[in-house]
């Protein structure tokens, strides 16, 4: 992992995008798309939903934790343990705001929440996602889900989760990383001054 971070938003943005570019030849755990394709498809879903820029960035970087910690423990070949926290912490250190980092930090708990609260959700998960669910604590219990449902940012968290699940199409053609560079630079410049 690189650091300390340069103070120039342009440089930091390019460092962060380089992590995703490194996912071009890394398969997305048990799915038929690369890590980079998965990130780009999730961001494209957010963009087409006319989501706020922070959520587009959250979708783009939601799995970056798989790509930045090469020596980290894995879930028996199903990705890096705690990749959601690794990714969220990386982006927070880089200067991204909580509107970007928290949907990333929460995208695994969102799955556990939806398994409890949304009928048919568990059955529709991909086999790989079901496999990791067991290692991530399984569905929330009802008390945990009730607390989770009261989060003010629940809608944003669930939106990123939904785009994540739709971003596994091997035939999708979507814009590349360059399409998000200006958005990321502007976000970093803004969030570092407030
Ligand atoms: Fe994902």
Poorly predicted tracts of residues:
none
Number of separate strands: 0
Q: Approximately what portion of the residues adopt beta-strand conformation?
A: under 5%
So how many helices?
11
Shape: globular
Q: Please state the oligomeric state of the protein chains shown.
A: single chain
Mean pLDDT across all residues, rounded? Answer: 92
The rounded Rg comes to: 16 Å
Structural class of the secondary structure composition?
Answer: mainly alpha
Main sheet properties: none
Q: Bound small molecules, which ones?
A: fe (iii) ion
Helix content: 55-70%
Briefly summarize what is shown.
The chain is mainly α and 194 residues long. Helix content is 59%, strand content 0%. The site of fe (iii) ion has 4 residues, from loops.
Give a description of the structure.
This protein has 194 residues and is mainly alpha-helical. The protein has helices at residues 9-21, 35-48, 53-61, 83-94, 98-105, 107-117, 121-124, 127-135, 142-149, 154-165, 178-191. The chain is built from 11 helices and no strands. Helix 3 (53-61) runs parallel beside helix 5 (98-105) and helix 3 packs across helix 10. The mean pLDDT is 92. Bound molecules: fe (iii) ion. Fe (iii) ion is lined by residues 38, 62-63, 164.
Give the helices and strands, then pairings.
Elements: H1 9-21, H2 35-48, H3 53-61, H4 83-94, H5 98-105, H6 107-117, H7 121-124, H8 127-135, H9 142-149, H10 154-165, H11 178-191
Helix pairs in contact: 1-11, 2-3, 2-10, 3-5, 3-10, 4-5, 5-10, 6-10
The protein binds fe (iii) ion.
């Amino acid at each position: 992992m690189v650091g300390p971070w340069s103070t120039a938003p342009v440089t930091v943005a390019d460092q962060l995008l380089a992590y995703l570019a490194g996912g071009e030849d890394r398969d997305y755990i048990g799915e038929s798309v690369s890590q980079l394709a998965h990130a780009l498809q999730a961001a494209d879903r957010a963009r087409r939903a006319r989501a706020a820029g922070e959520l587009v960035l959250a979708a783009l970087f939601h799995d970056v934790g798989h790509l930045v910690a090469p020596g980290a423990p894995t879930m028996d070949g199903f990705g890096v343990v705690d990749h959601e926290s690794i990714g969220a912490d990386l982006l927070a250190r880089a200067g991204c705001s909580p509107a970007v980092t928290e949907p990333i930090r929460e995208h695994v708990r969102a799955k556990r929440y939806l398994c409890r609260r949304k009928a048919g959700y568990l059955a529709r998960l991909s086999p790989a996602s079901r496999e990791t669910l067991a290692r991530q604590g399984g569905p929330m219990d009802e008390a945990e889900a009730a607390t989770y449902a009261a989060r003010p940012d629940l809608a944003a968290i669930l939106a990123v989760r939904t785009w994540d699940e739709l971003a596994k199409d091997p035939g999708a053609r979507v814009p590349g990383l360059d399409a998000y560079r200006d958005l990321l630079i502007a976000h970093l410049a803004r969030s570092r001054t407030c």
